[in-house]
Amino acid sequence: MLRIFSYADEESAFMSHVTRSVSFDAGVQNVVDGILADVAARGDEAVLDYTEKFQGCRPEAFEVSSEEIDTAFAAADPGFRSVLEEAYENIREFHRHEADKSFFYEQGDGVILGQRVTPLERVMLYVPGGKAAYPSSLLMNVAPAKVAGVSEVYVTTPCDAEGKVSEHVLVAAKVAGVDRVFKFGGAQAIAAFAFGTERVPKVDKITGPGNKYVALAKKQVFGHVSIDSIAGPSEVVVIADRTADPEFVVMDMFAQAEHDPDAAAVCITDSVEVAVKVKELAEAMVGKMVRAEVIRQALASNGAVVVTKDMATACEVSNRIAPEHLELHVAEPWSVLPSIRHAGAVFMGSYSCETIGDYFAGPNHTLPTNGTARFFSPLSVRDFVKYTSIISYSAGELRKTGERIAAFADHEGLQAHAEAVRARLRKV
User: Fold this and answer.
1) Phi, psi of 140 (to 5 degrees)
2) What does the pLDDT read at residue 232?
3) pLDDT at position 21 over 80
């Protein structure tokens, strides 16, 4: 199930095994393009048709009523409500530290320059449904939007064949103060909020994970709206030295592998003994997991244990992978951290398991996948604001610099640009 690689001898084979990229087959492309075009043309009727086709329901109401949300909240287990509230406060507190401020400064002679930060007006946050419900995704997407000051925060999530939305998601929506909850998903949901329909408002940004149809739909509507990223299957890399607990390593690999057969879980270690023990434990323990078959598929296709000559090489390998989640099961994680350049989130030490970050700690769990941690960042407050440059020039400063600016425009062959400056110079 888990193959052990020697990095010194099998570098090429290992990297080929773990390299991932965002790609969509032609069949998915054709389906998504057809749905987007149909929703753009037919609006609500197309949304209803696809919701009936894919979710088995043609809901009379597109939205979950406030009464339904209040009922779900009142009926929820108090312990569940409590942990949602505590987790949401942790997430909001973390994101409060991210908030950027507008700034202005004087350059002299009446020149004022600056940047103004303003929140987006409307955003839609997609929460996956179907086989599982993800209230954690709702909290993680809503918190930075609310901290940013977004005026209207909507959530959409697929309903079941009876037109019902997961009660757990509704409780999370109440905790997070979501403005409106819609009950359809898939590519049709992305299209509806990107283009706007009679009953669905057009938004400025769409965020949140989904299946390959949702991911491709987000990619295709970029430009009509902003998006966060193109999310791929979940992934974890565990760097383990000889002090690591193999059971912790195995369970954290299982935690990612149980998401999806396409999920990836890799252990990098400088200890042959740890590598062998991780492989043995994984094979012995997988049968005890409820989602054993999914875990087996994921580890066989996208799992690995790789042995490196030392910790420095282990960090180099991890940087090449640029994982979504990186766990440091090492004696001194803070001494290793400076060597880590590319990761969506880093979990420090054996007791900082990725599950804590998924649900409770505070940093966002919407992270770059498929190696995009080399250039993408976790979802943050900065995803829900925009930045506007402010330029205020005086006549005195233009008198000093105007002819040089006009000459710059002359060199680009843009006469009107140059003459716009010179017209003012003639008046000052």
Assistant:
1) -65, -30
2) 80
3) no
| Active site amino acids | 324-325
- Rounded to the nearest 10 degrees, the angle between the axes of helix 186-195 and helix 212-221 is 20
pLDDT of 130 strictly over 80: no
Which domains are seen in the chain, by residue range? 4-22+232-361 (3.40.50.1980), 26-227 (3.40.50.1980), 394-425 (no CATH)
Three-state SS for 341?
coil
Rounded CA-CA distance 26/32 in Å is 10
Binding positions for NAD(+) are 126, 188, 211
Q: Answer whether residue 22 shows pLDDT above 80.
A: no
Contacts of 305 (CB under 8 A, 6+ apart): 2, 3, 4, 5, 266, 267, 268, 269, 275, 278, 279
Average pLDDT, the chain: 94
Could you tell me which residue, 134 or 138, shows the higher pLDDT?
Answer: 138
Residues comprising the binding site?
126, 188, 211, 234, 256, 259, 325, 358, 412, 417
